[in-house]
Design goal:
seven-stranded parallel β-sheet, 27% strand, globular, 191 residues, eight-stranded parallel β-sheet, 15 strands, mainly beta
Length: 191
């Protein structure tokens, strides 16, 4: 049996016009470090077997038609640095276990139908970009890591006070528009 396909490290099919499902056999590509399927027409759920990709650092699935929730076992992908599922048809909540992704630098889930309360993100101590805009999140602002430089939460139903944002010393870009927030304006960031 030839296992050469299991040694594939990078798949980049961005903008190739693919119109298909992502098959569960993707989990067999255990050496994969980058999976870029951005800007295609993938549909259906993201298979749970994707969590077998323990070496993956970049999972870029934005601008497709993926549906369903985040894959089970996501918290086992501990080398993940760039996680982009923006502009899909995904729903469900962000599980608290997301804090296990300690290598995460960029988390982009904008333009979906995710809902529920936001979990505590403070354990993602390397995170610099968090984009959860244009979803259905509600509740108050959670704890964020002090490493954040970009925080985009616009077009949700988040309520409460914005004072905790003032404790993010590296924040450069902030968009909280079209929510139900209150509090004083925040000086340094671009709102």
């Amino acid at each position: 049996e030839d296992n050469s396909s299991s040694r594939i490290a990078v798949i980049n099919l961005e903008g190739d016009g693919l119109d298909c499902f992502l098959t569960p056999t993707i989990g067999n590509l255990t050496e994969l470090t980058t999976l870029n399927l951005r800007n295609n027409n993938f549909r259906g759920p993201i298979p749970n077997t994707i969590a077998k990709l323990r070496k993956i650092t970049k999972l870029l699935l934005s601008q497709n038609f993926f549906s369903g929730g985040l894959p089970e076992g996501l918290s086992e992908m501990t080398r993940l640095e760039h996680f982009d599922l923006s502009q899909n048809r995904l729903s469900g909540t962000i599980p608290p276990k997301i804090s296990a992704l300690r290598s995460l630098l960029h988390l982009q889930l904008s333009g979906n139908q995710f809902s529920g309360k936001l979990p505590d993100f403070s354990g993602l101590w390397q995170l610099t970009t968090l984009d959860l805009s244009s979803n259905l999140f509600y509740g108050t602002l959670p704890q964020f890591p002090t490493s954040l430089r970009t925080l985009l939460l616009s077009h949700n139903m988040i309520s409460g006070n914005v004072s905790s944002i003032g404790r993010l010393p590296h924040l450069k870009t902030l968009d909280l528009s079209d929510n139900r927030l209150s509090g004083k304006k925040i000086g340094r960031a671009h709102v």
